[in-house]
Description:
The complex is a heterodimer.
Chain A: H1 2-18, H2 22-33, H3 38-45, H4 53-90, H5 109-123, E1 127-128, E2 134-136, H6 137-140, E3 171-173, H7 179-191, E4 199-208, E5 220-231, H8 235-250, E6 256-263, E7 266-275, E8 292-301, H9 303-308, E9 316-323, H10 325-333, H11 340-343, H12 346-349
Parallel strand pairs in A: 1-4
Antiparallel strand pairs in A: 2-3, 4-5, 5-9, 6-7, 7-8, 8-9
Helix pairs in contact in A: 1-4, 2-4, 5-10
Chain B: E1 2-4, H1 5-8, H2 19-28, E2 33-40, E3 61-65, E4 71-81, E5 89-94, E6 99-104, E7 117-127, E8 132-134, E9 143-145, E10 149-151, E11 154-156, E12 159-160, H3 163-166, H4 188-192, E13 194-199, H5 211-222, E14 252-256, E15 264-271, H6 280-288, H7 296-308, E16 312-316, H8 317-324, E17 331-337, E18 343-345, E19 351-353, E20 359-362, E21 367-370, E22 374-375, E23 388-394, H9 397-406, H10 412-417, H11 424-441, E24 444-445, E25 450-452, E26 461-464, H12 466-473, H13 479-488, E27 492-495, H14 498-505, E28 519-522, H15 533-548, H16 569-583, E29 587-588, E30 594-595, H17 597-600, E31 610-611, E32 622-623, H18 627-638, E33 644-652, E34 666-674, H19 691-704, E35 710-714, H20 717-724, H21 731-737, E36 742-752, E37 755-763, H22 765-769, E38 778-784, H23 785-790, E39 806-815, H24 820-831, E40 835-844, E41 853-862, H25 871-889, E42 892-893
Parallel strand pairs in B: 2-3, 14-17, 29-33
Antiparallel strand pairs in B: 1-13, 2-13, 4-5, 4-7, 5-6, 7-12, 8-9, 10-11, 15-23, 15-24, 15-25, 16-23, 17-20, 18-19, 20-21, 21-22, 26-28, 27-28, 30-32, 31-32, 33-34, 34-38, 35-36, 36-37, 37-38, 39-41, 39-42, 40-41
Helix pairs in contact in B: 6-7, 7-11, 13-15, 24-25
Amino acid sequence: MLDKLSEIEKSALDALQAVDDESSLDAWRVAHLGRSSPLMMVFSELGKLSKEERPTIGQAANRVKAVLEAAFAEKTEAVKRSALERSLSEEKLDVTLPGRPIQRGRLHPSTQQLRRVLAILAEMGFQVYTSREVETDEMNFQLLNFPPHHPARDMQDTLYVDAGERGDNPILLRTHTSPGQIHAMREFAAMNPKDPPPIRIALPGMCFRAEQITARSEVQFNQVEGLAVGKGITFSDLKGTLIEFAHRMFGQNARTRFRASYFPFTEPSAEMDVECFVCGGKGCAVCKNSGWLEILGSGMVHPVVLQNGGYDPKIYSGFAWGMGPERQLMLRYKIEDIRYFLGNDIRFLEQF
Amino acid sequence: MKIPLSWLKDFIDLDGLSVEDIARKLTLAGLEVDEIQYVGLPMPGYAAQDMHSSERHEFKTSGIAWDRDKIVVAEILEVKPHPNADRLTLLDLYDGQQTQVVLTGAPNIFHLKSTGKLSKPIKVAYAKEGATLYDGHADGLVLTTLKRAKIRGVDSYSMVCSEKELGITEEHEGIILLDDDAPVGMPLADYMGDAVLDISILPNMARNANVIGVARELAALTGRKLKPPTVDRRPKTVHRPPSTVGNINELVSIQITNPELNPRFVIGLIRDVEIKPSPYQVQRRLKLAGMRPINNIVDATNYAMLELGEPLHAFDYDVLVGRTGSPTHKIKIITRSARDGEKLTTLDGVERTLSSMNVLVCDEKGPLSIAGIMGGAESEVTDKTKNILLEGAAWNFINIRRTAKQHNLPSEASFRFSRGVHPAMAEIGVKRGLQLMAEWSGGMVAPGLVDEYPLKPKDATVTLTTKDVKRLLGIDLSAEEIVELLERLEFKCKIRSPQNAKRKSSKRAQPITNYESPIMVIAPPHRLDIGEGVVGLADVLEEIARVYGYDRIPSTTMADALPPQIGNPVHEWEEHLRDVLVALGFDEIVSYRLTSAENESRITQYDEYVRIANPIAPERSVMRRSLLASVLDSLEHNIRLSETLAFFEIGSVFEPTNNELPNEPRKLAVAMTGKREPNAWDVKDSPALDFFDMKGRIELLLSGLRLTDVVYTAIGASTLRQAQGDAPLPRRALGLRSATYLHPGKAAEIKINDEVVAAFGELHPLVKEKYDLGDSPVLVAEFDLDVLRGIAPTYAIKPVPEFPPILEDIAVIVDESVAASRLEALIRQTGGKSVTNVRLFDVYRGDQVGAGKKSLAYSLTYQAPDKTMTDAEAAAIRNKIVKRLEQEVGAKLRS
């Protein structure tokens, strides 16, 4: 019997030698450690043995079982390892295949730029103020010191709404976000009409002009204005604030210059130019060889506008400035066709 | 406004300043130089395309410099025939050093061919070999260098130049014939080299739309002296004794009917003019300034206008005399409003029908010209004109502006008058015009002017203090410094002594140190742009800042208190909404608010629109009512550009009201179509997006906004039909319920707290047909943001459970008509707090459950907050649920 056991052990271990994968491993386990394997038969036949023989044979059978199990565990480990090694050497990706696309969303470039501008303004203490897009002539022009038929109106070709005979106060599409200045001043002034609080607001929004839609001109565009009103606000504050804004917007080294200009609702008025960030001021097509880019128009709030907003110009002063996010994007990304912004072609949108 | 530098130099010494220096000073002071056109003067290094130049490009430049050695003034001594060519001539030409033979085909000296030696040599611009010029015969401006060539057997290595060759105008037919006093041999650049500054004139700087205005600004900016024009100089030549020319006041009178429209009217008379071309230098300046020379009389009116800013009008005096019917009758000029329908043929030959808004210059017989805009044809100056009446007047700028617009007659005169010209300029202009006419035509100026001046504008007076300058500009200037700056622009200033002012303003003595010396400032008599009071103060402060220099004003930060922080919740909420939508894979678009009713009618018909009175195009003629229409337009545009499209837009739509401002409700529109997953090299045939893809995103959107208790209900065909009828639904509800563009079986509305916030679903096949939108279903949603924003979000976060849950799946069979939402609600209700999650994981229809039935399989999570739930407890809850489902909706547990 002991011989039989050593025979079982030997043939099992021999057979294990040939095992090299999981299926033959499994077959080996069934053949040599399974219920009907010779070794198990020995265990089942133990009862038939004499009392004397039983402990010896039992012990021997247990030892063989332990040996086979240990050998099996070892083999299993080896098979696993070699299988892993094989797979590691075989599983090679073409890493140059394209990644699997993900359907992601994007903000419209104008929104992205508006956010940049508004984020900077928020840090400078300017809160967002929004107002309606269809306005009266009074709000869009007259209260902003554009009297009816004033030559300054030539600067802004206006789209009018068909709304019956309204005399000198037709309804129109706002040509700039500046009517918000009056709305805001009146709202703030109403908080304390005797001593209106200071104002620092940013006015973003869609504006409209009666312009043909071409690569260079649009009927509809975004504008952002800033407005500060308070006591003792000076033209030098205007310069300081706008230079700070330009540094945040275009880099700490951005050079600026202020040129006298004219807007009916500010006086003194100024255009702020930023040194061309495409050519560094040497002159190129983007800056039309001037070295400078016109970035924004600004000025001290006109006394008539302050008055119309409920702020006494003898006590209060302020400044305002306006700029176009689309124009900024056009300069920054060298976009030559303004129609892209409202064209909503994904081949444009997906580049942002 | 184009200003030749040579003309500026008549009024200011510009020595030591380069053209760029001048342009820069003007630009910074608000006279923006758009372009510098060099016409002979040397150009800066960068203009010569020197890439290594370290000079900054500061201005757009064009033009050409004339080589001083190679282009000179010369004189033609004789015009001889060319031996081999009929149309060419050979010139005997003296260039100051030697006599040359020069070949030319110039037609304007051809008539002198073979007339022998000229009695008076003709002065010309002569270019020698090696000179760089524009090619006179090329299209456009092509630079070329003169080389030796043989033309029809004659050596040619130099030429007499046309204006095109020298870059003065496009004229290339004839050569330039210089004035007789041109010095032979002088480099042409020294004689008439020029640079033209093209300056944008801002609306408040109309006073500078002329040479002297720009010169005055330069004088102020550089601190140099302005040389005023010598308008009172007597004409040099007097052909007849003065007694034979009567005073004009005996011959002409003026009647102004409305001084508001015509504050001043001045007339002068010049007799015995000889109509001929103006001197070449005059013509050159006019051309460089953008005007076409006509003859010496018309040129004189234009020259004076360009120089001083006062538009002048010349009448043929004898035509007016003829109209009186008698040579001894006094001419009476009347200015009045036109009668509606009155007609006048203007000098462009067009008969114009006038309205009562227009102002006319008339005589007793009828209208002569449209005031300030265009003269009449009948009294126009012709080659036969002998005597000239010269008008200089002041008009109401708004009236002129409206008239010019009405008749679509923009002119140099109306450009100036419609921006305002000070009445003081009328007299100065007429005097200057007469003087120029006398100089150029040999005529004789009649003594006196007829001058009606019924409405003299008040000299604008502004009082300011150094404190005002400090408070508004932020700079410390003494009263004397302020006065010095303003006087440069010809303001009259007076510093009132503190003592005087103190006595006037206050009876109680104040400490002298606190007292401000007020400065009284009177605007100069060429300006209409200075106001009174606080406006006048701002006007004067702007002038102080400009002349002081914006660049010298320091940069400071605001010292004023921060305002109340009211924020902008609407804006912030919409920005958050954008972020959530982008995270869900939607691309934001921004569309035209301007659209057409036809375009929107593809999805919904609206009766009323906010209509544009002056649309730029029919397809941009109304303000949109439907944001979804905008989004579908973009979907259509991109349909072939991507397999999957998912767009959203947030913005206003415009609901008209009865001739008042429209409502501008805020909306969100979403649309998507195409494949659920983008195709990749190993992902093929992904299924098309459907209703539940949209719903899944909407669920996430609403949870992203922290909105709970969202109820989805089918908008059935009957509801959609009802919406088209006259069901008295409130406007807002109607907006979404009338989503007739949705597939009736695949449409839902969303309610939160019993308010309808959105409608969504698959686009109705008949609507889809009207668009080019491909084969996949199109999923759309429209949200009413004003309602959605009003719903309070839920912020509370549930605690993470500490005890293990029990998970169990149950499947129930119900009638097809039972809504999934009903089952889930019953499960949740019955399970109470112990059922923490209910997830539908399968819907089965088929033989195993029978016709008209469906099986819904749910995965339930049982959980107790304070202990580990036992299987028995879970089973008890489950039994309760199953029982409830059986009772309420006849559900059978599927085993």
